[in-house]
Amino acid sequence: MNRLISTKGRYALRLMIDIASYSNGSPVTLKDVSKRQDVSIKYLEQVVSLLLKRGYLISIRGNNGGYLLSKDPKEYTAGDIIRCAEGTLAPVSCLKTDCNVCPRKDICSTLDFWKGFYDVVNNYVDSVTLDDLRNEELLKIGNDYSI
Predict the structure, then answer these.
(1) CB crowding 64-80: b at 16 or more within 10 Å, else e
(2) What confidence score (pLDDT) does residue 70 get?
(3) pTM value?
(4) How many helices (H) and strands (E) does the chain have?
(5) At residue 146, does pLDDT exceed 80?
(6) Residue-level pLDDT at 41
């Protein structure tokens, strides 16, 4: 199985970082995110839909509308956002749910390896907050942005 984070997962993370970086309390439009991130508005609409359903974003309608984070950036982890778009980050199908129904689970010589791998991935993505990623974004662009 070749398991990679899809564009949906990567763009969800980029969208959330962009909103955290550029909102300053004002809604951020998809048009602006699209320009900065070089992602089509159509694709961003799909990603926003997932994030709205999970309650990660707030939609503001009207002329000055757009999207805001529903919580402080410190309260989101990269893992939360990626799993919102991707579902599980399990490297193998037998770990996709809490109840492993694989008939080989009791004799599988690689199951503990995959569990350990999965734990390392989850621990890492859950150790990085949206605030950490926003701060990295601001360092990379040199705080030279306009609103």
Answers:
(1) eebbbbeeebeebbbbb
(2) 98
(3) 0.89
(4) 6, 2
(5) no
(6) 96
Instruction: Quick: pLDDT tens for 65-86.
Output: 999 999 999 999 999 999 999 9
Can you tell me the distance from the alpha carbon of 66 to that of 44, in angstroms, rounded to the nearest whole number?
Answer: 12
Q: How far apart are CA 66 and CA 59, in angstroms?
A: 6
- For residues 21 and 26, give the distance between their C-alpha atoms in angstroms, rounded to a whole number: 11
For 7-87+129-141, CATH number? 1.10.10.10
Q: Which amino acid is at 106?
A: D
- What are the domain boundaries of the chain? 7-87+129-141
Q: Which phi-psi region, left, alpha or beta, contains residue 104 (left: φ > 0; alpha: ψ -120 to 50)? A: alpha
Q: How many CA atoms, within 13 angstroms, populate the side-chain half-sphere of residue 78?
A: 17
The DSSP code for 127 is T
SS3 content of the chain, % helix, strand, coil (to 5): 55, 5, 40
Q: How far is CA 44 from CA 5, 83, 99, in A?
A: 16, 17, 33
